[in-house]
Amino acid sequence: MKNLRKLQGIVLLFILAFFVIRYPQFSSAKSGEINNTMENQQSIPYLEDGMYLIIGAFQIGDNALQYSRKTSIKGKRPSVGRYKGNGLYYVYAYKTKDDLDYAREKRTELRRENQFYDAWILYVGIKLQDLLPNQVEETPDVVAINQPKEIANEKLKVEDKAGSIPPPPVQQDENLYNYRFNVVSATTLKEVPGYVTIIDASRDKAMKSVSTNQIHQLEAPNSQSKEIIALCDIFGFVKEQVKFKIDDPMSSEDQSMIDESGGITTIKFQLARHKVGDILTMYNVYFYTNSAIMKPESKFELNSLLGMLKENDKLEIRIHGHTNGNSPGKLITLREDDNNYFAVTPNNIELTSSAKDLSKARAEIIKRWLVDQGIDEKRMELKGWGGKKMIYKKNDAMAGKNVRVEVEILKG
How far apart are CA 106 and CA 100, in angstroms? Predict the structure, then answer.
């Protein structure tokens, strides 16, 4: 019996050798599959000390790998590394140990290309003050959505010593489920920061909002079906949603958007940009009362608009301003030489104006901010409507939404 098994093993080896010799593509295909399987988050190396030219920052390693595979810089694929300081995964085009001039030269070179307008330098284990003792660290020319400044409050909490993937949250009871909403741009493959609204499908009632690209524990709705809707509605992108049973997501009709692994269910959104003719409402851009000066919390959505315009230099827009009602009143605005867009100061100009003038001044201040960020003013038109296109009656409980800015896509 032992001799028979030995003979069978020898025969199998000969058959395998024949296939490898006769069909070499068989061997290479299998090898490629193994390599692709091994190339995952756990295989991403940590960044060593040096300066890195970053073209993408990601909270999910697989997103960084996908972006790297689809991106080419002078015919070469960019590298991926993980930073111990915050657990994020960075895609970088160039690296230098201590040549600051080289790093800055390459940064300028990359920023000339529309795709990499937000390239920036990451210092790992190096302080700029050590290279230039009398110089303070510069700020990037563009505060881009995918830079760590934008996702600082969403950093992964990881244990770096083992170099492993962060474990899923502890399952506290059978009514809680671990979910992550992986949201990327279909155009750039970069992660999109924002929120996903969780809706009880049976009652059509919002349950909570959760941040994108993070692991969250979701509670099952108090319904027999346990169905929920995940609604992804982020400024600058076409709205998407998926419906599924929170306790059995793979029973969903659209399984291509759902993946289960390691006790975590990932819902995958690839968001498309809006097309010509679409009108986007900037509900998260806020103005001080009777002014064309924005509040600081407007920056996030402004950066989203900026990113959209930087991403496609053929895009042209019209900015529409709206007010609640048509009553004339006070108008506080900036002087021509003042770029303090997010605070009312004694340096401001105070006028008396119509509601139409106020709405146009608000559209104008957004255009002016975008021009300061490098957008050609010829790509933007303005329209002030005053209260001619109110959504609600002037004294309605929802009348605050009448005060808004809309962005219409004209070309692109």
Answer: 10
- Please give the mean pLDDT across all residues of the chain: 84
pLDDT of amino acid 27: 36
What structural domains does the chain harbor?
A: 42-154 (no CATH), 176-271 (2.60.40), 279-411 (3.30.1330.60)
- Counting residues of the chain whose pLDDT is more than 70, the rounded percentage is 80
Nearest alpha carbon to residue 195 among 94, 351, 63, 304: 304
Q: Which residues are CB-neighbours of 244 under 8 A, at least 6 positions away?
A: 227, 228, 230, 251, 252, 258, 267
361: CB partners within 8 A, 6+ apart:
292, 321, 331, 333, 353, 384
3-state SS, one letter per residue, for the chain: CHHHHHHHHHHHHHHHHHHHHHCHHHHHHHHHHHHHHHCCHHHCCECCCEEEEEEEEECCHHHHHHHHHHCCECCECCEEEECCCCCCEEEEEEEECCCHHHHHHHHHHHHCCHHHCCCEEEEECCCHHHHCCCCCCCCCCCCCCCCCCCCHHHCCCCCCCCCCCCCCCCCCCCCEEEEEEEEEECCCCCECCCEEEEEECCCCEEEEEEECCCEEEEECCCCCCCEEEEEECCCCECCEEEEEECCEHHHCCCHHHEEEECCEEEEEEEECECCCCCEEECCCCCECCCECCECHHHHHHHHHHHHHHHHCCCCEEEEEEECCCCCCEEEEECCCCCCCCCCCCCCCEEEEECHHHHHHHHHHHHHHHHHHCCCCHHHEEEEECCCCCCCCCCCCCCHHHHCEEEEEEEEC
CA dist 247 and 265 (Å) reads 10
Q: What is the pLDDT of residues 292-301, one digit of tens each?
A: 999 999 999 9
pLDDT, tens digit (0-9, with 9 covering 90-100), for 136-194:
445 444 333 333 333 333 333 333 333 334 455 555 567 899 999 999 999 999 999 99
Is the Cβ–Cβ distance between 259 and 226 less than 8 Å?
A: no
Is the full-model pTM beyond 0.85?
A: no
pLDDT of residue 35: 39
